[in-house]
Amino acid sequence: MKSFEQPFKIGKIEYTNDWPVYHHFDPSALSLPAEIHSDLPANLNRGLLEETLYLTPVSSFAYGTRSSDFWLLPDLSVSAKNAVGSILLFSRKPIAELGNGTIALTNTSATSINLLKIILHKRYQLTPEYISMDPSLDEMMEQADAALLIGDHAIAAAQKETGYIVTDLGQEWKSWTGLSMTFAVWAVNKKFAATYPEFVTETAQQLVKSKQRSIADLNPVIQEAQQKMGGDHAYWKHYFQQLWYDFGEKEQQGLALYFKYAYELELLDHEVHMELWTDNTLIRVNE
After folding, report:
1. pLDDT tens digits, one per residue of 232-274
2. DSSP states of 7-55 as a string?
3. 90 touches 208 (CB < 8 A)
4. How far apart are the first and last CA of the chain?
5. For residue range 187-222, what is the model confidence (pLDDT) as tens digits?
6. Is 5 helix (H, G, I), strand (E, B) or coil?
7. pLDDT digits 0-9 by tens, 16-54
8. In angstroms, rounded to a whole number, what is the distance separating the alpha carbons of residues 58 and 40?
9. Coil, helix or strand for 184?
10. Cα-based distances in Å from 179 to 13, 134, 232, 251
């Protein structure tokens, strides 16, 4: 186990989808020195798994690969009850007709990649060829019949008139399973949490308070998105409202099913049993 260095880095997804959780979060107000470390999902995943980050949002799949090493912070996720708006498949023909085609996958998120594979294999019984590429829609579609983009890359592409069919994987999952899909969770290294339990609880509580304050009034978050990303108020209001930041029973059920299918398809080599952190007490989620 690597030694813990202060100030502690608290991970933050570089994309807009977790902004409501952080907009009112001030790490300088915590009882121990801390700072926000903003990065791409793949880098946050790597940091948690390689123990250079100890408390961070990570893709659900990355958590699942070593779930026994981490606790999940309660009441925090990036989920979608229906459409997610930022996990999008662009294609020349409907998703059900992609069986003999080639699909270009973004190289920035394992959760979305494996969600697509689960949907294609389990729902449509399709096994297309996959290639991994940088998230550039034009370049991806030069080499493939469909392209998967996530986060701000997906948002930017969706705002253009590309002529492609756009399939929202959050909506696709909900239409198929009837459940929400959780794309990211907040995880904490168990050994770190055992050493600094009060800090973990305090950080979790402050993140939840920031989330609740943002949801109560989205206007400050929307204004920040407009300033940094462009777009009008109505677009960003719809975008943030269709995301869901809780991690209650329904979200846990949807994620448990995702993990079950990932294990059945051998995308994961073990069954995942989610465990929640609360006031230094372990709670196992009942799937």
Report:
1. 999 899 989 989 999 999 999 999 999 999 999 999 999 999 9
2. SEEEEEESSGGGHHHHTT--GGGSSS-EEEEEE-HHHHHHHHHTTS-SE
3. no
4. 30
5. 999 999 999 999 999 999 999 999 999 999 999 999
6. coil
7. 889 999 999 999 999 999 999 999 888 999 999 999 999
8. 10
9. strand
10. 24, 30, 30, 8
Cα separations in angstroms, 206 against 25, 39, 41, 156: 7, 20, 22, 31
The DSSP secondary structure of 67-82, one letter per residue, reads: GGGEEEEEEEEEEESS
Nearest to 274 by CA among 264, 265, 255, 266: 255
Its pTM stands at: 0.89
Q: Quote the tokens at residue 6.
A: 């202060």
Q: How far is CA 195 from CA 8, 200, 207, in A?
A: 13, 9, 20
Residues 6+ positions from 135 with CB-CB distance below 8 Å: 106, 107, 108, 149, 150, 153
Q: State the Cα angle at 73 between 72 and 79, rounded to 5°.
A: 85
Q: Report the distance separating Cα 20 and Cα 253, nearest Å.
A: 23
Structure tokens at 201: 């609880």
Residue 74 sits at φ, ψ, to 5 deg, of: -75, 150
Instruction: Say which DSSP state 179 is in.
Output: S
* Whole-number Å distance between alpha carbons of 243 and 77: 10
Chain CA centroid to CA 40, Å: 11
